[in-house]
Amino acid sequence: MFHVRVWRSPAPARRRLPALAGMLLAVAFGLTGLAGTGTASAATGSRSAGTAASAACPWTTSAQPIAERVADVLDHMTLSDEITMVEGHGSTNPYVFYMPGIPSLCIPALGEEDGPNGVADKLTGVTQLPAGVAVAATWDPSLARQYGQVIGSEELGKGAAVNLGPTVNIDRDPRWGRSFEAFTEDPFLNSALTVSEIDGVQSTGEMSQVKHFDAYNQETNRNLPPDDAIVSKRVLHEIYMPAFEAAVKQANVASLMCAYSAVDDAFSCDNDYLLNTVLKQEWGFGGFVTSDYGAVHATSAALDGTDQEQPESTYFGETLEQEVASGTFPQAVLNTMVSRMLGQMFRFNLFASPPTGNVNDIVTTPAHVALSTTVADSSATLLKNSRHTLPLSAAHAGTVAVIGPAASISPTYGGGGSAAVIPSSTVSPLQGLQAAAGSGTRVDYSQGLPADTTLPAIPASALSPAYAATSAGGSYTGTLTAPQTGTYVLAVDDPCGCYAPTYLKVNGQELIANPGTPPVSELSAAVNLVAGQQYTLSITGGAGSGGNLGGISDALSWATPSELAPDIDQAVAAAKSASSAVVVVSDDTESEDADRPNLELPSAQNELVAAVTAANPHTTVVVDAGAPVAMPWLSSAGAVLDAWYPGETSGTSLAHVIFGQVDPGGHLPVTFPQSLSQVPASTPAQFPGTAGQADASSGQVEYSEGLDVGYRWYDAKNITPMFPFGYGLSYTRFAFSDLSVSGNSTNGTGPVRVSATVKNVGNTAGSDVAQLYLSDPLAAGEPPRQLVGFTRVSLAPGASTHVRFTITPRDTWWWDESANGWTQSTGTYGVYVGDSSALANLPLAGSFQIATTAAARQVEIQAPSTMAPGTTSTVKVHLTSDGNARLRDVRLALQVPSGFTVRPVRRTAFANLRPHQSPTAVFRVTAPVWAPAENITVHATANLGRFAQREAGVNVGIG
Question: Which is nearest to 337 in space by CA: 84, 631, 161?
């Protein structure tokens, strides 16, 4: 593709109101304090300004196109005003990211608030929703949209104009600390859910800021040079970018957050290829790019595509202002940054109607809580159900022993970090089961293990040297002598509750990575020790005053085998005397700022489950976790139910599923490996990379698994995971039949229709997810199979339904690095339909042929590097030819910003193109007389039939 990128030197002085004149106008019309804080009182003030506001700031009520209103505001802004909009203003404001209003110009404040899984950052009076991975487990875009509507409504209610979410990064590895807040390992499912949630958020009038672009898949070394993802452009476009592309092209997302990660030696927020070439030119993104917290590393990031630095003004504040004033940084680029923000503020009507909410307002509602429960119900994923363990009868189940700290005294409702939400109220698993039990069902509780917060300090006699708060630099290394042989629980506390990761290792093996973020500050792990043997114990990082670790009673504790035995024995006795048992386990370690060292459950939960399942074969293990966990007890459990992070009504939803009021229709959005040796990124070079935690100067993360992410890896290597992607059981059974694939051959520009019948062959109503996978010809070099369609169905006993899918040409494309664009291969394409990615669960198979193809046809743009306002220039759009297909109804088009006019001077439609015939369309583009000095993107498309499109973009300087 041909791209032109020209940065103008500072534009000549434009019509501007000096700052003093603006202030005088504001005073004269009584406009001071307008919408400056995002609070209800400030918003009321802006509304009451009425006619005065219109007179001083005509753009607030103007009916002119948004682009013209933006130009009008920009024409009145001083350099200082523009810097105010793009710089960070600290994180001590009501919102995690914040731009104060500019009263003299009636520009409202812009509060940007964390919210991938609900309104976060310790704000109260909100609904704690199930985690993003739970939304993905529903495989239900309509629920994702409703989920987004709740988030958008509550963010607006808190006075925030921008929701920082959804998190749509691919779940590359189950150890990623933020797996729970993201959706899935699959780009197709990811894209569908992304579009739906953003549509839901933005339907409320709230902007959505999709995050984090791009290849952000781990917390280790984040925002440091060693977190440098070495990944090919093909893998980026096919795996890590599709959800962001869908957010831009289908959901018209208002904003995008660039990531902490570096991609091919350039930090994401300083990455010209990601932000300019792909995002703004190829995709035509019209919104604004905000940095993640402190993710800008140089003022040049503004040239590379970041429009707003948050939360501090390290590079876009005084430094940027001085560079613009001196002429070393182009004024036109700053104008473009501000224009992108103003455009979205006008689009979402913030000038005329800024948010009126206050951070202290209560925004949760019964309807929001009900939707949260529905998502939890629909996401519950039944992984095993032998011996008719589930469902239990709420009316006459006899005695049900509910076991585990996670069931009552320390339940886990969500993950930590910026996605942590404070629930308005909670229903624990025990409370939910007790409330739903009928008169013939008795629910007893046994804790089974001590809570982490109650563990005693390790005695000084077991440690050498003595462990104390004066440990240098917040670290400790010594020896631990075990007094007994058996399973111990070691725990590390972060008493300050801040972002201060603490790592604990025994004999060099990392057991705990405590991120020091909500919702918990004390994490634990089980370890087997031998009496009298000495073990090297080390702690690095740490919290506490001055960066030192707290005292021994605060930071390091344990439970010995003899201290664990009484609670486990009591749980075993309860299970033996009960008709059935429900053990609730949780992983409370998942959080921003630290990756999990392994897949083990914290504390001695695995030992507890093993003991209880041995005592009662009718034991259901309920897993509250945001990512895959190890299940060494799987073979002895009667049933296993993954409830994910279910949100504040955890117990209500659990009772619905356990007692059969709701069918557990969730399906896995991620593969569950049998061990870490199975995961695609199994080597240290792949995860977390070649640099250690202490080395912040260099290193790389090798994405050498390439396209084989998630289930693609297991299929390509013929590895059987513990549970495959897309897997999920029901209380009933389903059968697939009657596969139909329309047409045996296509030229690659039209759709292929696929249909099948799904029937409930069981005795109860239930739901399933019909999934369509596509295999490419070997020459394409693609993974064995890839998801290209899905639909969730709910059926009564004996009922059936016809499911229909459309395989579009885009589903058959692959990224050709030599052509720098999408291409397509001829040959046989396999079609598979069933209810998981595993071949054993894909009973229907068919195929179709692509005999001829457009192949690597690409769009090229020839445009001037600059255009003057009011003048007309010539732009050419050329479609290159590389395939052997005869193409029909090809249309070349040009998209320009609002206010610009486009007039074709040659034909743009071509009814019949021979192979290798390359058409060119010529357009005359006129810039409006009011166009500000900025950089615009001219975007071109070539439509090759209804479903196939090629595109390109180019930057043009105006001035």
Answer: 84
Cα–Cα dist 943/720, whole Å: 42
Task: Determine the Cα–Cα distance for residues 46 and 283; give it in Å rounded to an integer.
Answer: 36
How far apart (Å, rounded) are the C-alpha atoms in residues 4 and 616? 70
Q: Taking residues 696-704, what's their average pLDDT?
A: 87
Backbone angles phi, psi at 105, to 5 degrees: -115, 10
What residues contact residue 821 under an 8 Å CB cut-off, 6+ apart?
1, 815, 856, 858, 950
Whether residue 545 has pLDDT greater than 70: no
Q: State the Cα–Cα distance between residues 301 and 275, nearest whole angstrom.
A: 10
Q: How far apart are CA 490 and CA 505, in angstroms?
A: 10
Q: What is the tens place of the pLDDT at every residue in 587-607?
A: 999 999 999 999 999 999 999
Q: How far is the CA of 937 from the CAs of 223, 336, 446, 448, 622, in angstroms?
A: 29, 10, 64, 62, 52
Identity of residue 550: G
* pLDDT tens digits for range 863-883: 999 999 999 999 999 998 788
- pTM above 0.85? yes
**Burial annotation 244-274 (CB, 10 A radius, 16+ → b, else e):** bbbbbbebbbbbbbbbbbbbbebbbbbbebb
* Domains of the chain and CATH, by start: 19-347 (3.20.20.300), 370-451+564-690 (3.40.50.1700), 459-563 (2.60.120.380), 711-850 (2.60.40.10), 859-958 (2.60.40.10)
DSSP annotation of 25 reads: H
CB atoms within 10 A of CB 317: 18
Specify the pLDDT at position 869. 95
pLDDT, average across residues 556-574: 96
Distance CA 186, CA 169 (A): 10
What's the confidence (pLDDT) of residue 203? 98
What percent of the residues of the chain are helix, what percent strand, and what percent coil, each to the nearest 5? 25, 25, 45
The tens digit of pLDDT for each residue in 366-382 reads: 999 999 999 999 999 99
Asked whether 174 and 599 are in contact (CB, 8 A), the reply is: yes
- The pLDDT of residue 951: 85
d(CA 675, CA 598): 9
